[in-house]
Write a structure and sequence with these properties.
The N terminus is likely disordered. The radius of gyration is 21 Å and the shape is globular. Helix content is about 25%, strand content about 40%. The strands form 2 sheets. A 10-stranded mixed beta sheet has the order 2-1-5-7-9-11-13-15-17-19. It has 2 domains: about 270 residues, no CATH class; about 70 residues, no CATH class.
């Protein structure tokens, strides 16, 4: 079957529930039962300790109604055009795939990118075994609610040894509004020796607010390679909660890039299970918060098999009265000998009112491992600012350049050069500001 054959009825906004298999209805019921048992998280839950829960629960529990034609038109205009280096692109508006904005080159036609209703007949075995099971429901009521409200979803399957010629870009556009939550969902299965670069971008219609609870589940097969970019750049008043669950098989490699740049309240929870020997992961993140926004990041890496490797580096730039949070756990289970892990979190505060909470954490159940972790919180080095000013650079430009130097490391690691350039320009404008053309020009030239 043609990988991008998208059925018009599916894309018109239907949830795909008519004629769905019993196991899918049961899976949705499991989510509802789990949410009723857990309820909304509270500050008593360690990973949610600093989140203002009243901002979330006031939205209710039900899915938002489908957007009207005018809202869809605004969303499609906001989605823009594809980046250079993108082989396939899908736009989802409030969690529903839009056929008119789906594009793809001719590479690897065996790679499936399908709405859930159609994918059931193509990769049903993967879905039955893993949909709703990788993103853990153990202690997260929001993830359980997202499963309970599962309607449409995008399913990506890369068969054994296959790879697109470039990245797959998924643009999630939220239309906003106060009536209910948006639950976009993506399920990815990359079979043995397959390869995928996936870019998920979360944006919204600028003049509208909303609450998005997004879920992404990724299966990385033996000796497969997956690179996942998650960029959240929502309007100023928007709220976002994201849950990413990953399972990595024998010899598989998973790299994550999480960038939180916009919204009033944004939270990303990322769990990675290094399930078989030789599995590895690298988690990179950058959060840039200003105004009174709050960006929250919780990561869990579970070494459940021997000879597994993980690395993690998150950086935060916090200004004005904003707040940033990093809560990272690395679990090295009993029997996971010869595991190797390194975890770092560095934070730069740009004002006296900015706040950051950082808690890197190791939990090790055996002795034959290598493990290190650390965190830093600080401000710009005034001696470095003075040095740049002594070379004729104004103070605002000096501070902008030094802030960019702190953040640049995380931007240039991104696997798509066009995305590096685009984000570099966005951050140049935010970190250097319009009043600092010297810094903006220097950053642009560096890209």
């Amino acid at each position: 079957m043609n990988a991008m054959h998208l059925m018009a009825a599916e894309l018109a906004g239907a949830s795909g529930r008519a004629g769905e298999p019993d196991w899918l209805r049961e899976r949705r019921g499991e989510g509802r039962a789990r949410f009723e048992a857990l309820g909304w998280p509270t500050r008593a839950d360690e990973a949610w300790r600093y989140v203002k829960m009243r901002e979330l629960v006031r939205w209710g529990e039900a899915s938002a109604p489908p957007p009207d034609a005018a809202a869809v038109e605004r969303a499609m205009a906001r989605a823009g055009t594809a980046l250079d280096g993108v082989a396939a692109r899908v736009v989802m508006v409030d969690g529903v795939v839009r056929a008119e904005a789906t594009t793809r080159d001719g590479s690897a036609p065996e790679v499936s990118v399908l709405p859930l209703g159609e994918a059931l007949s193509v990769v049903g075995d993967h879905l039955r075994s893993s949909l709703g099971r990788i993103a853990s429901l153990t202690g997260d009521g929001v993830a359980a609610l997202a499963l309970a409200e599962l309607g449409d979803a995008l399913v990506v399957h890369v068969p054994r040894g296959a790879a697109l010629s470039g990245a797959l870009e998924i643009v999630h556009v939220a239309t906003g509004g106060e009536a209910g939550l948006r639950f976009p969902r993506v399920f990815v299965a990359v079979d043995a020796t397959g390869e995928l670069t996936l870019i998920e971008r979360f944006i919204g219609v600028p003049e509208e607010a909303g609450f998005t609870a997004a879920t992404t589940e990724i299966l990385v097969g033996g000796d497969a390679t997956v690179r996942h970019v998650r960029l959240v750049d929502l309007p100023e008043a928007a709220l976002h909660n994201g849950h990413v669950g990953v399972r990595v098989g024998r010899g598989g490699s998973f790299t994550s890039y999480v960038l939180s740049l916009g919204g009033r309240l944004g939270r990303t929870e990322l769990t990675v299970d290094l399930a078989e020997p030789g599995a590895s992961c690298q988690l990179d993140g950058l959060y840039v918060a200003s105004g009174d926004s709050h960006f929250d990041h919780a990561t869990t890496i579970a070494h459940t098999s021997p000879h597994t490797t993980s690395g993690e580096t998150y950086k935060g730039v916090i200004g004005d009265a904003a707040t940033g949070t990093f809560f990272g756990r690395v679990l090295i289970r009993e029997g996971a000998v010869k595991s190797d892990t390194r975890q770092l979190n560095h934070n730069l505060l740009l004002s006296t009112e900015a706040r950051v909470h950082t808690r890197p954490q190791l939990e090790i159940d055996n002795d034959d491992v290598k493990a290190a972790h650390g965190s830093t919180v600080g401000q710009l080095d005034e001696m470095a600012v003075f040095y740049l000013r002594s070379r004729g650079i104004d103070e605002r430009s000096a501070r902008g350049l030094l802030t960019w130097a702190f953040a640049e490391e995380m931007v240039v690691r991104l696997p798509v050069p066009a995305l590096v350039r685009e984000l570099g320009r966005v951050l140049a404008a935010r970190l250097a500001s319009d009043a600092s053309p010297v810094a903006a020009a220097a950053i642009e030239e560096a890209l």
